[in-house]
Q: What sequence folds into this?
């Protein structure tokens, strides 16, 4: 029940899922890059779904769907905030454990069961869900519409329902712990930005996941109870269905009411960790601490009122569309504030290029590149042509895929010494960093062009299209880069697991020269985190200044000197 | 077996890399010059980041040169011209922000790398700066929102009265096109009357307006150059999406809900062939909403013709009713059953006469 153990469970489950999800992307990239060729190795993994080494279209769509589901939910939600909320919240606010350790444990085991069911769905006769990770009905509601909408879809829905339960248990726990269990002196305005970010992540999850669950329940009813929430006037499989009066668009509203906040659930932990890491390794306070909190608040509030920008081309009222354009583009402002504050944080710093620092810097670069294209897609008129093209793929992979991953990697490299009492190997870390950064840009940058050319996403093969077939060589190039990047991630996984047992040992309490509380615990903190009393907090978390003894930082536990002004 | 060997090889390579990396790190610590090596690594990383930046910029340029001639030709609709100019403005504005911020990021990385004598400058906040970079992006966004909404409301406005009206219906996995025929009125549809043999769109034969409707089942839509066209969009089964990249247009086809869009084509298909110097050029309709295993093959085409050519073409198309009468003549029973079914209830969402 120890929060540190649960955090590691989340992390390792997340890593396993990430390998599965990434492997799927390699499989479907092989198809996209080399539609003419066969790859017998795929038959080994996928059996009859890739007879003779050629993916079937049905399974291509299943892979795409599972890639999205796994990475968005199981890795970047559970694996990311599950790991770091559990690990950092008690350690950084000075608590011995979560408010309810038991609920915390339940949350992991619900996630685990959900994982098992989702994984099992890969092996059913008709294959896993194949309607895209958004599983829009009627496609996902009718087994006549797609082979993946059979048992695979049921398992998908059950797994996701359990996943929501897990997220709610976890989220309530995080919020309660942060609000109630801070150590003496740890005012809200003295919390590290990681905690602020994880706090808002939990708030977003708690308020939006229930809506998703309601959407799923209605979908289950439509599938099995003969209701018509999402179905109306459908002729399929040679017969007309009796459903009348439902709206397929209703599901999209319910889905995106979570789906959009979900983007920030994925993003915020990375933002928080990047802030913390940039500051620590620049030996300089985060610039605009208060502005960072305000912009996080702004993002959280706005996240709830922009969901319909995913639906500009569903035929929604143009007036409503206009409102959503306005609200959506407002989010660019707090995001811009954060970027400028990060830049000012490293300005005139004393930058130590440790591996976590490299990833935090990469995070900023990718967040800028991916974030700016959001301004295109959030503007409804521009979204019309770009909607559901490769431009969208490039946008969200850069901003919430790769950059969230960079936040996660930065966090793993930075807190690995606290988790396991050892360091990860630096050389491998640097290789991992450069290959991944370059790979991310090589893969996703050219996709913007494909999107401008109108190339639709989720196509199995483009060679029959006069308008899109000219990108054949480019697709092959991208696929090759994907394979290289995939093996580099395996190198990271290898580094991670080997370093747990063989890594260089941590010999000092505070290897990074950090100001926050987790580094006041023993190298291998036991259950309860601090052996004696929890140290009292006297100052804000970013006092990177001369302490008078030759150190360039003052930990939060050091009382203010006479005459020293609190931040 | 070969899979096993490959896996073993990969793991082996990883182990070798790891051991080398670890050994070199331990060696520096043993030699006691950890600090010096750390300094060297720091400098190396700063230079590598600069190299990454320079190569990245070259890459961006190369990518641009390489891909520009593979992009879409000039917009083929009047609305698309507005679209393209808006896209250009947005590209320039975001492009400036992109280059400025990335240059600053990588410049700071190089300029402020840790050296022995460097001390970080304690600088925790500055409200003037925060206000500056709240208002400047806000103002830039106002510009984009104003342009965007202006275009959005024009594009989604009600189609002009004189538009040519064409219905396009998505089904797994092709497009069906319907013209109202000489009377200019679409006949009523009831999805329960649909059958793939004799009535693909479920037309209600009791409605006289349906008798002269023309249905094109191969997804080939003919429209008239420089004449506004309004598409009435429906779906028979799941959600599809009518994507017209050359016209910069797109709209979902949702079962049970009719959507519309309109635009003004600028060039005939023939003109476009000359413009692109591609004799195979064709306006394509792509399905842009995941609709099942054949999603990627759900291809339609648009033929833009002069008014005279269009008139000649449509004159040759038989009314769907007449065609089915002929085909169904040997088996009148099937045909007789269909109209009887619809008298039970009024069709809930027929395509009303679209004028």
A:
């Amino acid at each position: 029940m120890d929060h540190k153990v649960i955090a590691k469970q989340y992390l390792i489950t997340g890593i396993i899922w990430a390998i599965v999800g990434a492997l799927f992307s390699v499989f479907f990239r092989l198809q996209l890059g080399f539609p003419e060729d066969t790859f017998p190795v795929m038959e080994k993994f996928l059996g009859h779904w890739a007879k003779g080494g050629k993916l079937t279209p049905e399974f291509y769509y299943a892979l795409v769907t599972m890639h999205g589901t796994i990475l968005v939910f199981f890795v970047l939600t559970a694996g990311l905030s599950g790991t770091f909320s559990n690990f950092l919240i008690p350690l950084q606010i000075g608590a011995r454990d979560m408010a309810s350790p038991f609920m915390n444990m339940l949350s992991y085991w619900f996630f685990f069961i959900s994982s098992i069911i989702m994984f099992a769905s890969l092996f059913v006769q008709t294959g896993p869900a194949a309607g895209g990770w958004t599983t829009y009905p009627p496609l996902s509601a009718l087994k006549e519409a797609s082979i993946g909408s059979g048992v695979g879809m049921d398992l998908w829905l059950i797994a996701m329902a359990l996943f929501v339960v897990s997220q709610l248990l976890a989220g309530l726990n995080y919020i309660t712990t942060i609000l109630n269990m801070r150590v003496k002196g740890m005012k809200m305005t003295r919390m590290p930005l990681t905690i602020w970010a994880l706090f808002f992540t939990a708030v977003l999850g708690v308020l939006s996941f229930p809506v998703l669950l309601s959407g799923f329940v209605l979908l289950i009813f439509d599938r099995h109870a003969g209701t018509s929430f999402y179905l109306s006037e459908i002729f399929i499989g040679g017969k007309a269905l009796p459903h009348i009066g439902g709206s397929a668009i209703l599901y999209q509203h319910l889905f995106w009411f979570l789906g959009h906040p979900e983007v920030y659930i994925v993003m915020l932990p990375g933002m928080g960790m990047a802030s913390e890491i940039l500051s620590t390794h620049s030996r300089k306070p985060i610039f605009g601490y208060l502005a960072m909190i305000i912009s996080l608040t702004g993002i959280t509030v706005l996240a709830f009122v922009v969901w319909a920008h995913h639906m500009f081309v569903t035929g929604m009222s143009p007036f409503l569309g206009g409102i959503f354009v306005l609200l959506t583009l407002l989010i660019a402002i707090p995001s811009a504030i954060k970027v400028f504050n990060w830049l000012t944080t490293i300005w005139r710093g004393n930058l130590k290029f440790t591996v976590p620092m490299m990833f935090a810097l990469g995070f900023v670069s990718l967040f800028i590149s991916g974030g700016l294209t959001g301004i295109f897609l959030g503007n409804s008129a521009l979204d019309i042509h770009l909607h559901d093209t490769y431009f969208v793929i490039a946008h969200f992979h850069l901003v919430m895929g790769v950059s969230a991953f960079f936040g996660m990697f930065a966090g793993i490299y930075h807190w690995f010494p606290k988790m396991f009492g050892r360091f990860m190997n630096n050389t491998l870390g640097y290789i991992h960093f450069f290959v991944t950064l370059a790979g991310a840009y090589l893969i996703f940058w050219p996709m913007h062009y494909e999107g401008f050319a109108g190339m639709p996403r989720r196509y199995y093969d483009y060679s029959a299209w006069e308008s899109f077939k000219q990108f054949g060589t480019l697709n092959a190039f991208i696929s090759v880069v994907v394979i290289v990047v995939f093996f580099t991630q395996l190198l990271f996984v290898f580094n991670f697991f080997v370093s747990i047992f063989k890594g260089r040992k941590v010999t000092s309490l505070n290897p990074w020269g950090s100001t926050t509380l987790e580094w006041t615990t023993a190298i291998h903190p036991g259950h309860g985190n601090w052996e004696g009393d929890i140290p009292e907090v006297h100052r804000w978390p970013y006092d990177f200044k001369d302490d008078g003894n030759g150190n360039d930082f003052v930990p939060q536990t050091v009382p203010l000197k006479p005459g020293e002004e609190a931040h | 077996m070969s899979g096993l060997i490959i896996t073993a090889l990969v793991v082996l390579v990883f182990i070798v890399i790891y051991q080398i990396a670890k050994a070199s790190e331990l060696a520096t610590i043993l030699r006691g010059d950890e600090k010096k090596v750390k300094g060297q690594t720091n400098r190396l990383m700063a230079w590598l980041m600069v190299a990454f930046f320079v190569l990245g910029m070259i890459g961006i340029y190369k990518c641009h040169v390489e891909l520009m001639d593979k992009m879409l030709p000039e917009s083929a609709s009047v609305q698309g011209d507005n679209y393209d100019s808006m896209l250009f403005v947005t590209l320039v504005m975001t492009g400036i922000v992109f280059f400025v911020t990335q240059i600053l990021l990588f410049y700071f990385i190089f300029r402020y790398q840790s050296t022995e004598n460097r001390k970080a400058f304690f600088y925790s906040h500055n409200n003037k700066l925060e206000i500056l970079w709240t208002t400047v992006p806000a103002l830039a966004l106002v510009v984009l929102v104003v342009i965007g909404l202006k275009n959005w409301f024009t594009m989604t406005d009600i189609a002009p009265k004189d538009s040519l009206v064409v219905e396009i219906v998505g089904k797994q996995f092709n497009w069906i096109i319907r013209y109202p025929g000489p009377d200019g009125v679409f006949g009523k549809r009831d999805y329960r009357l649909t059958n793939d043999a004799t009535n693909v769109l479920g037309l209600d034969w009791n409605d006289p307006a349906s008798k002269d409707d023309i249905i094109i089942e191969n997804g080939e839509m003919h429209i008239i150059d420089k004449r506004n066209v309004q598409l009435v969009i429906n779906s028979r089964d799941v959600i599809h999406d009518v994507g017209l990249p050359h016209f910069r247009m797109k709209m979902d086809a949702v079962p049970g809900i009719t959507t519309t869009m309109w635009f003004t084509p600028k060039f005939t298909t023939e003109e476009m062939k000359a413009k692109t110097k591609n004799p195979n050029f064709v306006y394509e309709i792509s399905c842009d909403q995941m609709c099942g295993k054949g999603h990627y093959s759900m291809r339609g085409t648009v033929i833009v013709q002069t008014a005279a050519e269009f008139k000649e073409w449509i004159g040759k198309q038989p009314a769907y009713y007449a065609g089915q009468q002929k085909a169904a003549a040997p088996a009148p029973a099937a045909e007789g059953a269909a109209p009887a079914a619809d008298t039970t209830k009024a069709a809930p969402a027929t395509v009303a006469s679209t004028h």
User: Anything to note?
Assistant: The mean pLDDT of chain A is 94. Chain A touches chain B through 131 residues (CB under 8 Å).
